[in-house]
Amino acid sequence: MVCTLHFQVFVTADYVAEDPERFERNIYLLRKQAVNNMAKQSVDCYICSLSTTTIVYKGQFNTHQLYLYYDDLRNPEFITHIALVHSRFSTNTLPSWPRAQPNSFFYRMVAHNGEINTLRGNINLMRAREGVMSSSLYEDDLGKLYPVVEEGLTDSGCFDNVCEFLVKAGQRSLPEAAMTMVPEAWEKDEKRILSALLAFSDGRYVGAILDRNGLRPARYYLTADDHLYLSSEVGVNDHDVESIVKKVCEIALLNQYFIRTHHRTRKEKESEISCKARKDMCCTSRLHRL
């Protein structure tokens, strides 16, 4: 196995404690500028993550090798209440360290099982929209985040770029961004051709959403000790049958399923309604128009 060189850096500022959201926005801007500059200079480097809420561990490994490669994952003092794990064989792109999933928040916010068949059209439309975008959070710095979709990524990576942009530069929560990009079937929606189980997290929310056709498997278990396990396959985790209080295997029931970091589980319709109730829908359609 050819191993890459890894570095871990720490970034801070004197206003972190007072304004953590501002700091998160600024390090997102820092990362995007670094990625764009490295691309212009043909520097072969990939930034796995730069965030106050998540760390991305990735590599061109099988699942057992990943666990052995990173000491953090074996440290008993290393604890998290959310973990998003993705392992797959590259089918239509050459395997590489940057393309390994979790890709950029796994890819950086999204782990994707499936394929997006309108990829080039989606990228071109996103580039076209950059000319009319505005952000009250970034204002004149918004152009420094372009291109929103970085070059050389897989369909999953491109999706992740846009999802992250909607959350960091827009006024959406991560569940809202997911519902925007993978909407329920409606005749007047812009057509999106994809087969996808998309799991996502930003360290605050974790959830999953299926494409409108339900072309990928998904199932989840809720245990008596308030753990939720969601996977695309059977047998990912060994569970004591008596500890399972709910098991859902019907993919039609997995439209949106979110849980918050304060450990309250929120079912799909409750989450969808809460997103819609936050703002007047006419105002929302203007603010969030893609």
Automatic annotation (TrEMBL):
Keyword Manganese applies: no
The family database entries (Pfam families) matched by this protein are listed as: GATase_2
* EC annotation from Swiss-Prot or TrEMBL: 1.4.7.1
A single Gene Ontology biological process assigned to it is: glutamate biosynthetic process
Q: Which GO terms describe its molecular function?
A: 3 iron, 4 sulfur cluster binding; glutamate synthase (ferredoxin) activity; glutamate synthase (NADH) activity; metal ion binding
UniProt keyword list: 3Fe-4S, Amino-acid biosynthesis, Flavoprotein, FMN, Glutamate biosynthesis, Glutamine amidotransferase, Iron, Iron-sulfur, Metal-binding, Oxidoreductase
UniProt pathway:
Amino-acid biosynthesis; L-glutamate biosynthesis via GLT pathway; L-glutamate from 2-oxoglutarate and L-glutamine (ferredoxin route): step 1/1
- The answer to whether keyword Iron-sulfur applies is yes
Tell me the ranges covered by the Glutamine amidotransferase type-2 domain, including all copies: 48-262
Cofactor(s) the protein needs = [3Fe-4S] cluster; FMN
Name the top EC class.
Answer: oxidoreductase
Q: Which SUPFAM superfamilies match?
A: N-terminal nucleophile aminohydrolases (Ntn hydrolases)
Q: Family per UniProt?
A: Belongs to the glutamate synthase family.
Protein name per Swiss-Prot or TrEMBL: glutamate synthase (ferredoxin)
Q: In which organism is this protein found?
A: Strongylus vulgaris (Blood worm)
